[in-house]
Amino acid sequence: MEESVFKALGLSVTLLAGYCFFLTSAYRRFRAEHLRPDRFAFHVLGVSVFLYAVGVLVASILVRHGAYEFARIVAEYTHLQAPVMCALILAPILGTLDSLYVAHRMRHNTMVAPLAWRHPFARMRMAAIARFIQDSDDAGIRLHWRALIYRKPLMLTLKSGKVYVGQPVEAMRDPSVRAHSIKIIPLYSGYRDEKTHKVELPTKYRDITSAIELREKEHEPANPADPLARDLADLRTKDGDSIEIDIQDMGIVILWSEIQSLTMYDDNIYKAFQAIGPPPSKETPIVPYDADVVR
Fold first, then answer.
1. How far is CA 93 from its chain centroid?
2. Residue 27: predicted pLDDT
3. Which of the pair, 79 or 131, is modelled with greater confidence?
4. Residue 26 burial (CB < 10 Å; 0-12/13-18/19+)?
5. How many CB atoms are closer than 10 A to CB 135?
6. Contacts with 96 (C-beta within 8 Å, 6 or more apart), sequence order
7. 258 alpha-carbon distance from chain centroid
């Protein structure tokens, strides 16, 4: 009975080693976590088996070089076999090496290149996010990422017919988790015409944002993703007065489930479409009924 318990403990620790690998390698975790639970478990099991096999090899080498006494002491006090302990130690090491490999591979990426190696964890995590999105087939997340990186506005058409144009402001920290909403700083808003489906943007938020003067910051906030973070600015009124506002309060949160279409917005492209008139009507003319013609 006691031997069975120790074997079960060794199996659990081996599975834990596989999970530790995914925790250490952000890119592998992003790739695995968006899968179904059964497939994620299969990935963890596969890595665990690989780590155990490597642990057997490492343990045999250590024993061959005179570390038998060390392996015996470990087994006596932890009730774990040497291969299991080796697998548990190797998991974070191999995960870190994999993260370094991804960071090296993505070193020329627009978001990874500016990050200095004196912040290795931030660089490795950004490289993992960039590579995951680069390999993703999700057009929505790829477009959102492009808008964030190049600071371009998005045009969102809602199911209600309402249209918003705005700059996305939320950082992408875990692309493997599908967000339920998107936050933008609005530039325009309007609607789609019911007949022509052309976008009309009568409300211009830029008339307000042009009157906002950003304050100089001595240093960047410690955690920009904090929902309680503040970004103070001064709003000039028509009377010439200056009012203190918080830029974070101007954001609009829109549920992804309410978005019907999503595209990058460009003023020149929008004006070109507006210059084109509505297509001619293709409705068949109604011919009045004439009884004499029928006869």
1. 25
2. 92
3. 131
4. buried
5. 10
6. 24, 25
7. 19
Q: What is the C-alpha separation between 250 and 11, in angstroms, rounded?
A: 52
Residues sharing a CB contact under 8 Å with residue 208, sequence separation 6 or more, in sequence order: 235
Q: Where in the chain is the domain with CATH 2.30.30.100?
A: 139-217+229-275
Q: Are 215 and 206 spatial neighbours (Cβ–Cβ below 8 Å)?
A: no
Instruction: Pick 64 or 183 by higher pLDDT.
Output: 183
Please report which confidence band the pLDDT of residue 69 belongs to, taking 50, 70 and 90 as the band edges.
low
Contact between 168 and 154 under an 8 Å Cβ cutoff? The reply is: yes
- The CATH-assigned architecture of domain 139-217+229-275 is Roll (2.30)
- Alpha helix positions (H), the chain: 2-24, 26-33, 37-64, 68-78, 82-105, 120-135, 139-150, 206-209, 267-275, 291-294
The percentage of the chain sitting over the pLDDT mark of 70, rounded to a whole number, equals 82
Tokens coding 78: 């932890």
Count of Cβ atoms closer than 10 Å to residue 148 Cβ: 17
**Rg value, the chain, Cα:** 29
> How far apart are the two ends of the chain, measured CA to CA in Å?
102
Q: For residue 165, what are the β-bridge partners?
A: 155, 188
The predicted model scores a pTM of 0.73
CA distance 97 to 99: 5
